[in-house]
């Protein structure tokens, strides 16, 4: 993919987002909105409990 292809794609995405009202979520805010840390904690706690049982 050439640079012009990438800039064309970016422009198309920008137009699409304007029309549909979809806003991209910045990476810094994605973690706040998605409970990935909570999921990670749940999995790590359950794996620690099962390890202690053995």
UniProtKB/TrEMBL annotation:
<protein>
    <submittedName>
        <fullName>Uncharacterized protein</fullName>
    </submittedName>
</protein>
């Amino acid at each position: 993919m050439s640079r012009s292809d990438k800039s064309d794609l970016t422009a198309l995405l920008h137009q699409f987002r304007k029309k549909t009202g979809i806003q991209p979520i910045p990476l810094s805010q994605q973690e706040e909105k998605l409970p990935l840390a909570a999921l990670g904690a749940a999995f790590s706690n359950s794996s620690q409990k099962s390890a202690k049982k053995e």
